[in-house]
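REQUEST FORM: STRUCTURE PREDICTION
Request ID: SP-0412
Submitted by: Lab K.M.
Chain count: 1
Length (residues): 120
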Amino acid sequence: MSRIYRVLVTSADKFVPSKLRPLWEHEAGPKTIFFWAPAFKWGLVIAGLGDLNRPVETLSIPQSASLAATGIIWSRYSLVIIPKNYSLFAVNVFVALTSLYQIGRAFKYQQALKNKEEKK
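STATUS: Completed
RESULT:
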């Protein structure tokens, strides 16, 4: 651990109410990367939600597929590690869902283009 990190945690320790102490001291609590990594990963979900307004012809199926696969793999992993990390599970489920939805949009668009070409 870095010196700065220890100073910050020690300083914050004094202000944590007794009711929140179990969360603070938890193996996957705010003192650990198990808390902060999923917290920052919500940025991917927000970006994915922003992409729902993106024109369908600009979507990348390989990119969406890799994000969906990552979300599915990490969702599973988050439930087999010790301690189980439900916040990591939740964020990865949302990463997978937004990516799978984008794949569906792109696939539907490509099928419509294909059908339009066949009618010509």
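NOTES: The two ends are 66 Å apart (CA to CA).
Reviewed by: T.R.
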